[in-house]
Amino acid sequence: MIDFIAHNLAPIMFSTVMLMLLLGYPVAFTLAAGGLIYFAIGVELSSISPEIKLFWPLLQSHPDRIYGIMYNDTLLSIPFFTLMGLILERSRMAEDLLDTIGQLFGPIRGGLAYAVILVGALLGATTGVVAASVMAMGLISLPIMLRYQYNRPLVAGTIAASGTLAQIVPPSLVLIVMADQLGRSVGDMYVGALYPAILIVMAYCAYIFVTSMLKPDWAPALPLEARTLGGGVTSLFVMIAVTVGLYFLGHEVLFTGIASPEWRLVAALAFGVLAVYLVAIANSKFGLNIISRLTQQVIIVLIPPLALIFLVLGTIFLGIATPTEGGAMGATGALILAALKGRLSLATLKHALEATTKLSAFVMMILIGARVFGLTFYGINGNVWIEDLLTALPGGEYGFLIVVTIIVFILGCFIDFFEIAFIMVPLLAPVAEKLGIDLVWFGVILGINLQTSFLTPPFGFSLFYLRSVAPAGDWKDQATGRMMKGMKTLDIYKGVLPYIIIQFIMIIVVIAFPSLVMRYKSGHTTVDPADVKIEIPGFGAGGGMSLPPLGSDGGNGAPGGFGLPPLGSDGGLPGQAPATGTPSMDLSQPPVIK
Predict the structure, then answer these.
(1) How far apart are CA 132 and CA 86, in angstroms?
(2) What local confidence, expressed as pLDDT, does residue 277 receive?
(3) Neighbours of 16 (CB within 10 A)
């Protein structure tokens, strides 16, 4: 029995720790305790199994490993983006966006659903936190959609799915953690995830469009009396055209003196957007009636968050700022926006700082526990066991990706993405790299997979977030005074099923078309290792590092390298003709002193 345990300690350790996590024990302490307990067991069994390479002095490496976590600059962006999201949530940006975009799309069927999806994408690009997105949209849009007779499962599914876009839309916290654990650049991960994120948003909108065509009563248009901002979409298109024109004017005429193409683009874009924004502000303050009220509201509400998104993602994509610097600018920009709206109070700031500190400490503790677990697991050759297990799968890299997708999807229903990223990804990444899978591509697939697991009944986290804010019993609509039926849990489960199918289709699409992600390499200079030739200079005749014969011209007609005659010459003085024939010095005889 002892021999069996000694030779199978890796699967026993992995199964035990995962079972404890699924039972609900605290993740950080479970990982650390499992690592330390199995470390002691491994040291005692090391004499039985040669696969176990653990000894007591190895514990002294833990302080250095923990300090290595604290010095990680990439993880510093997590508190910045968290603070930015919480400040924007408390400043009621989601409420303003939902109201304005809902009015913009109100005249068309499914307009409120389109608004929820687009606002979910915008919140994902600013907050990066699923809980904040789902709960904010659940509180704001769910009563409005039910008021105008939207289908209940459709309402619940759209809100829950749109909130999970924060998992894959940059600057997602999931992508930051994935980049750190995979050893890849956060900027590359953001660029790689951009096209898949856009496709997912478009797929959600396509589902709403098809539903509104087939079932018009499920997603009706807003009635005329509910469109408080009126019409005036034409002036919105005019203002967009003006913005584009001002951008080209700035880029081609006004800012040609800026040498850097990145800063020139930023200056031209800021010029066009700021000019249009000032026109909307002036129209609002002085009643100029230059543009419609709808256009005015769309510009005033949309430009600040879009500018913040550009401040964060645009500077990262253009190479102006690192992700950590982009997060710091985003947090600062969120504070400024909240202050300009008069919604930045001491209580708001205190709440945001407390929540940010808790999340950062939560991530740090899990990562420390994962390091303790990892030291023991690698010491008992657990990585070799995982690698042998996964590389033996049929189908090569695609078989590996399919199996990993299923495993991560199941785990994502029970445990948070932080745990999956810190436990599973370090074990899966070496196998993926050995199979020739691009790790950024792999990270994006895992990100979409985790987004899907947030929606899966009965354990999807997004479902719990929506359930916590959706009225369970009958409630009174404050706007109409009518009594409305509550949202059943079954309605939530039924509503997310079409979106789960969409997510799985998108995973298959990203696996089948890696070029959607690989565009991150377009700005990189790649070198094929097969084309690299290393020539080691020789020391003989003609060798790269060989010196010309003493006294020779070095092959270029110049005097000898050191101004000495060639060995064996008569050593004549300048101006004398060199002697020919046998050398004047016979090295086989002692020198003759004259």
Answers:
(1) 8
(2) 92
(3) 14
pLDDT of residue 351: 87
Quick check: 7 pLDDT over 60? yes
Q: Determine the Cα–Cα distance for residues 107 and 332; give it in Å rounded to an integer.
A: 37
Answer left, alpha or beta for residue 258, where phi above 0 means left and psi between -120 and 50 means alpha.
beta
Residue of 522, 467, 459 lying closest to 492 (CA atoms): 467
Q: Is 279 helix (H, G, I), strand (E, B) or coil?
A: helix
Q: Which residue has the tokens 């050398």?
A: 583
Residue 241 has pLDDT above 90, yes or no: yes
Contact 119, 110 (CB under 8 A): no
pLDDT digits (tens, 9 = 90+) for 211-234: 999 998 898 888 877 777 777 788
pLDDT at 191: 87
One DSSP character per residue, 337-386 reads HHHHTT---HHHHHHHHHHHHHHHHHHHHHHHHHHHHHHHHHHTTHHHHH
Report which of 374, 351, 376 is spatially closest to residue 90, judged by C-alpha positions. Answer: 351
Mean pLDDT of 470-495: 81
Q: How far apart are CA 380 and CA 365, in angstroms?
A: 23
Q: What is the pLDDT of residues 332-371, one digit of tens each?
A: 888 988 888 888 888 888 888 998 888 888 888 888 888 8
Contact 463, 160 (CB under 8 A): yes
User: Given phi > 0 = left and psi -120 to 50 = alpha, else beta, which region is 221?
Assistant: beta
In contact, 142 and 470? CB cutoff 8 Å:
yes
Phi then psi dihedrals of residue 400, to 5 deg: -60, -45
Distance, in Å, from the CA atom of 127 to the CA atom of 42, rounded to the nearest integer, reads 44
86 closest CA partner among 359, 462, 454, 465: 359
Q: Which residues contact residue 236 at a Cβ distance below 8 angstroms, ignoring those fewer than 6 apart?
A: 104, 291, 292, 294, 295, 298
